[in-house]
Amino acid sequence: QIDFTKTLTDEQVYEAIMANYSSLSKEWISHQWTWMNSVYSTFKDHYKYMILTCLVEKTLQFYDQMGVNYNYEEYYSKSYLHIEKFSIINICEKLNLPKETVRRKILELEQLGVIKRQKKQIIIDRTAFKLIKPDNQIKLTSNYIFLVSQALSKNNIYSTKLNPKVIENGIKKKFSITWRWFYRMQIPLVIGYEKFMHDLVGFHIWGTIAMNQVLNISKDLESKNKFPLDHKTVSDMLIKNVGTNPGVSAMSISDMTSIPRPTVVRKCTYLLKIGLIKINSKKQYELSNLNFRKTLVYQKEVFWNKAKFIRKVLNLLVIS
Predict the structure, then answer these.
(1) How far is CA 246 from each of CA 33, 71, 209, 278, 279, rounded to the nearest angstrom?
(2) 218 or 114: which leads in pLDDT
(3) Which residues contact 99 (CB under 8 A, 6 or more apart)?
(4) Spatial contact of 51 and 102, defined as CB atoms under 8 Å apart
(5) What are the tens digits of pLDDT across the range 287-307?
(6) 92 class by beta-carbon count within 10 Å (0-12 exposed, 13-18 middle, 19+ buried)
């Protein structure tokens, strides 16, 4: 029998994230930045990877509907992944991309041998590209979920005793289900910011600049404050501290992301134009004061999607 009094709601997880933002923000932005790096590094093209992610997510959805679960090792034991039927229009709607772009990227994936068509079937050939099992990503995700569970436990909302390894094992045991939930969090998150910035490369670069700034501010927050600070307080502190910490150069961004330096400079020029970043006297890029007010509406949507994902994983661990 499931004890429903021990399960969580989206609202409870969302409120815990917002109330404990100072103790969670550093790990979250590192988590997202690591994932964006893997998105880009696979094909040196964010959109190709996101299209593959959409195809895989749809197949994971089909497994879920049929009551099929693969654990981590089972899921990666085969070199080929058969894709459930899809339409280009669905991918366009999900990724906010024109049909011409999606068709071109799918054709490029076919030319690389990543996607193969066999009559009416679509197959992803994992041997055709550098496939890295998301071992590190699962560890980062598990650690962040653990930190949120601790925040919930402090308020006596969640009583299940966990550690990052238990969460990691739980995700791997129900991998095809939990990773579908992960993609359902990540795809809207990335595309939400893409709609705002009109470019995934720009979002990746902006996120790198944001991570540098958040990590610098986090050191001050940890040394000066004994209690977790909420999202609004931390955002206000970040706005007040713009320019007091070192920024990050175009060369450093390129080294950190593997995005070519000329592309970094070009995208930063656009981000400067729309007021999301500024450049200091040392030619280093920083977030601007306008940043947080402009991105707040997107952040709220991100946090709700994140809360849904974490709620599902934590509830799964309660009933397992």
Answers:
(1) 19, 44, 11, 12, 11
(2) 114
(3) 88, 89, 92
(4) yes
(5) 887 766 777 777 888 899 999
(6) middle
